[in-house]
């Protein structure tokens, strides 16, 4: 009998409310359904679960796989479609799905250690760039994935929540992001399929290469794709501004990107991310504000759009 950690239970209720509470009640049945459908031997769930339930499993043929149970069916649909479009290129493969149970059966990446275990930040950034090269390809119009335009609504939600103000997020940063975001959208040259949340812990070692996991599925430009990696594990560096600047320069050099657009997206998305954390009552919003300030500081000596 699999028991869920108190941390995961509390987080599920805090983030998903009544939907999360109901999902927790049905969890044993959902897990059993997947076990019977795919003839799985269950192993221990992954540590530090947050928004979804993820567990290593073995099929009846002895193949190691990953079982992922979603609380939010919309997130499930997006990830499944993104996995189908990536088709294993730089990404863990989708093996099967059960939409009713909210479950995906995925390729198990071995040895599976995350990019965050690489001591050299410069090496880790180069590896992330190599994964992006595989992922960010032009996508056909035959998809239902959201585009970056949809994120503009997050600024409106922020304003509405704080009655037109910006709450604890510095107003000048929000105002700057609100001006930059539509300008960025209007000047995207080549929309591509993005992972949408590509950072150190979503890039795993797979034999002699590296692959991504947990795609959000988003249509945008590659400059935007760099941002979750850029601000991840940044504030624990001895000189965050210097590290951020060097990471950006690496992405620009390796992927031939526009530095100014990376800086602008960095500020815009850091504010959106701070709002998301505030919305979910997670204290990490303060870190995202600090990251927005770092992007803004680098922008002061750069030309914008």
Automatic annotation (TrEMBL):
Name used for this protein in its record: Streptomycin 6-kinase
Pfam families assigned: APH_6_hur (PF04655)
GO biological process: secondary metabolic process
Source organism (scientific name): Priestia taiwanensis
Lineage, highest ranks first: Bacteria, Bacillati, Bacillota, Bacilli, Bacillales
Highest taxon of source: Bacteria
InterPro entries cross-referenced by the UniProt entry: Kinase-like_dom_sf, NH2Glyco/OHUrea_AB-resist_kin
Gene3D superfamilies, alphabetized: 3.90.1200.10
GO terms for MF: phosphotransferase activity, alcohol group as acceptor
């Amino acid at each position: 009998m699999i028991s869920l950690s108190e941390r995961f239970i509390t987080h599920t209720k805090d983030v998903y409310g009544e939907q999360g509470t109901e999902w927790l009640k049905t969890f044993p049945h959902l897990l059993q359904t997947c076990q019977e459908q795919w003839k799985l031997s269950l192993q221990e769930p992954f540590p530090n679960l947050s928004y979804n339930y993820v567990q290593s499993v073995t099929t009846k043929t002895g193949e190691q796989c990953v079982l992922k149970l979603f609380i939010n069916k919309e997130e499930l649909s997006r990830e499944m479609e993104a996995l189908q479009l990536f088709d294993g290129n730089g990404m863990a493969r989708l093996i099967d799905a059960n939409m009713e149970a909210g479950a995906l059966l995925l390729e198990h990446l071995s040895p599976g250690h995350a990019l965050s275990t690489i001591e050299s930040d410069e090496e880790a950034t180069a590896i992330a760039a190599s994964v992006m090269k595989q992922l960010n390809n032009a996508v056909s119009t035959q998809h239902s994935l959201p585009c970056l335009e949809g994120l503009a609504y997050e600024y409106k939600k922020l304003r509405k929540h704080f009655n037109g103000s910006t709450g604890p997020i510095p107003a000048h940063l929000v105002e700057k992001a609100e001006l930059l975001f539509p300008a960025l959208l209007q000047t995207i040259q080549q929309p591509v399929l993005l992972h949408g949340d590509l950072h150190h812990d979503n890039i795993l070692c797979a034999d002699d290469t590296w692959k991504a996991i947990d795609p959000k599925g988003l249509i945008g430009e590659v400059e935007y794709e760099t941002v979750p990696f850029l601000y991840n594990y940044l504030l624990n560096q001895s000189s965050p501004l210097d590290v951020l600047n060097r990471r950006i320069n690496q992405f620009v050099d390796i992927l031939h990107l526009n530095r100014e657009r990376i800086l602008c997206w960095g500020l815009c998305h850091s504010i959106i991310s701070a709002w998301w954390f505030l919305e979910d009552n997670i204290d990490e919003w303060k870190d995202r504000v600090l990251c927005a300030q770092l992007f803004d500081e680098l922008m002061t000596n750069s030309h914008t759009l």
